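re: that complex we talked abt at group meeting.

here r the seqs, copy pasted straight from the sheet so there may be weird spacing, ignore it
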Amino acid sequence: DIQMTQSPSTLSASVGDRVTITCRASQSITTWFAWYQHKPGKAPKPLIYKVSSLQSGVPSRFSASGSGTEFSLTISSLQPDDFATYYCQQYQSYPLTFGGGTKVEIK
Amino acid sequence: EVQLVESGGGLVKPGGSLRLSCAASGITVTNAWMSWVRQAPGKGLEWLGRIKSKSEGGTTEYAAPVKGRFTISRDDSQNTLYLQMDSLKSEDTALYYCATDGTSAFNMWGQGAMVTVSS
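got the structure back, here u go
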């Protein structure tokens, strides 16, 4: 199984901050890697697919990059709507696996 | 507009069974890859299983914790995806989501159905 480790688990930031979340995979991932935003009581919102492709309708302040076993999600200027938990996911091999999540909190 | 609506959640005793439904609109489940994902209270997201499109064989894959107990199927006439859950355990208590699945990852999700396993 490919284990996904996110860091940090919690991030405290202010509106306007640039924030970066990291995800490390236990095995190399070539293409099939995604990021999601999740708020309590709501469906997870897809943000990124295939490592760095923005899902339709996602603001351009979100970007992602990475290769091999190291991946990152960056929010260039944190907005009030961005306070949420973020998950990485590999969908390259079974079982599909998610990271443990990074909660972005208001500082 | 694609919409997925889960239903069928509730309270069930350990060892019991429950079937969740995921009614789709805006897509044809026959032609879609779809997955089930859950979130236990205070925990992260956990993938449970996937069914491929009919044209690609309609095969299923499952995560180890649910393999042999959970079954994913679909009813093409109802345009609905199902998750049959048997031999339920307390650790299966979670919010269950269905999602469309493919090269763009899980790009559409339902709102979820709560399942509580307790005596």
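couple things i noticed - Chain B touches chain A at residues 35, 37, 44-47, 50, 61-64, 97, 99, 101, 103-112 (CB under 8 Å). The mean pLDDT of chain B is 97.
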